[in-house]
Amino acid sequence: METIRNYYTFSFGFTAVCFALAAWYGWSSTGSITATLGILWIVVVLSILEVSLSFDNAVVNATVLRDMDPVWQQRFLTIGILIAVFGMRIVFPIAIVAIAARVGPLEAISLSLNNPAEYERIVSEAHIGIAGFGGAFLAMVGLTFFFDNDKEVHWIAAIEKTINKFSNVPAVEMGLVLVLVYWVSTLLVPADKITFLTAAVLGLVTFIAVHAIAAIIEEREAAKKAAGQIVKSGLGGFLYLEVLDASFSFDGVIGAFALSNNMVIIALGLSVGAMFVRSMTIHLVRTGTLAQYRYLEHGAFWAIIVLGVIMLLSARYHIPETITGLLGAVLIGLSFWWSVRHNRRFPADAVTTPAD
């Protein structure tokens, strides 16, 4: 059995490389030890911010990843992290600037390095669309977990059992998200309303498309495998996890500008956090932690619903990332404590076999 250290060895090595790059960048660009230490401190804070905002992401990733083939689990940790680090933390903000400012990728990179204030302004102005897309997608992820007819374990029983009664109603969760999206859009000025609604609809379409791809691939696998030997489609699950990670990263990328508007510093800090989230996901899967703590998933999905709602509302109101992270941590902490309490009362439920 792997030790805890093995799960995080690569993440610590990656962190060391990022800190070395931050130190080199700080010294070469400022020539000051004090300024370099300041840059290193921002990288540390950004990495902690990313982990705190994305712990629920790790838990949800683990719920999908545990049913995937080990080969795809490894691809998620390798290829997936390249997409998460270079795609969402570096390419995504540059792409936003390139599209919004109608300039080429190289000009967008130059803008981020030579005029960080303007770069920050352009990315921040794209927040309306990001809030609509990410908020709608995350809200669907969270609600789908609870509107499941096969769901038997309930944490907040009074609410979750009531929700479960309506799980047979087709697309009820989508209807709730659309109502919320429309209500938020009524709070926006006309120019922002169209952008917000369009992005939210694209978020819903993306959610449907990813699940449709997964379902199609799983049906093909089911035709080839004997009953009882079917595992969740590697490709379908991989695509779902990458879109989910992208939705989570929106909040971190935008929030990072509260600490720095330098693309290099933001990319290094968020990349460290993203790597640790990946390691936490693998750790949760291979140690069977989700099975041992029966309400941990519930806390994570409630946190996702809260994050989705906050992202939608952020199109109109400024909500500090500290509040978002704190609410998520409280929900996951309570679900963990509730799980421990349940295991003490019913020791048989706590006996699990860690995943291979």
From TrEMBL:
Pfam families per UniProt: DUF475
Keywords assigned: Membrane, Transmembrane, Transmembrane helix
Coiled coil: none
InterPro entries: DUF475 (IPR007427)
Membrane-spanning segments: 7-27, 33-55, 76-101, 126-147, 168-188, 194-217, 238-259, 265-287, 299-317, 323-340
Keyword Transmembrane among UniProt keywords: yes
PANTHER family: MEMBRANE BOUND PREDICTED REDOX MODULATOR (PTHR30238), SLL1022 PROTEIN (PTHR30238:SF4)
Record-given protein name: Integral membrane protein
Species assigned in the record: Qipengyuania citrea LAMA 915
